[in-house]
UniProtKB/TrEMBL annotation:
Organism: Streptomyces jeddahensis
Coiled-coil ranges per UniProt: none
Record family assignment: Belongs to the binding-protein-dependent transport system permease family.
Pfam families: BPD_transp_1 (PF00528)
Localization (cell): Cell membrane
GO biological processes: transmembrane transport
Keyword field: Cell membrane, Membrane, Transmembrane, Transmembrane helix, Transport
GO annotation, cellular component aspect: plasma membrane
Annotated protein name in UniProt: L-arabinose transport system permease protein AraP
Membrane topology of the entry: Multi-pass membrane protein
Gene: araP_4
Amino acid sequence: MTTITTVKTVERRRPAGRAAAKVGRPGIAWAAPAAVFFVLFAIVPLVLVALLSFATWNGLGSAQFVGMDNWTKLFDDPVLVKSLWLSVLITVLGVVVQTPLSIVLGVWAAGQQRNRAVLSAIFFIPLLLSATAVSVLWRALLDPNFGVPAQVKWLFGDGNLLGEQSSAIGVLVFVGAWQYVPFHTLIYQGAARAIPKVLYQAAEIDGAGRFRQFFHITLPQLRNTMITSGIIMVVGGLTTFDTILILTQGGPGTDTTISAYYMYQKAFKGFDFGVGSAVALVLVIVATIISLVMVRLSGYDKMRSTMEGV
């Protein structure tokens, strides 16, 4: 009786109306620093790039407005279409390779296996390295004269893996997976640990084995995580630059010249920042459209919970 009276007394003392609303959600001032940062370092540069795409500028002096000349010149260049196709191809291959590996390793790392923590720590080491360091490392390891291919010629033939388009693309996909699978594994590990154990307990009572639990419980519960991870992979794949610069430099020929590297060639090698800005804008538009399509088709924008009914 005393407890009930105390609770009622506390409820009477709670602020009501506007006072209660003020306690519930922080004001807009809390978002101001992040908003200012985003505007200065994302929106403003994007607007400047869009304006520069309609001008000609070699990095010196003043930019000169040329209207649609840059865009006309750009779409008459067959390398642009090829670079967009290569960007999409490498991105899709990256998603296909990294997603299943990340899911399996993430679910495993979320368990209670022996030595799991030590093995996970070792596996996450590539995540601590920069893309430049990883590219330099694999450039040395894959050197046809002194690297691994030179020592295992029965497997790699002449050892020049970066000398043909198919093998060069395979190397790029492999190096990207080697570095970024640990990151996506970490995402899936956290999501897998959030799945209620009661679902697995009920499945065990019904006689479901580990494989059925994985496909009928784990994967459906990781649906939203898959979409988030996939969007990160797509945006990261479309904007890959440093790996291409160090490993292949767009070669052989233009066989690995993706859009980001094509932009670098136009702007910083050809000193045509107007066309380079147009390429950058095309890349932003393509990446945005693909991300929005993924969100729309997956239903992720509706934020349906995977915990309903639990």
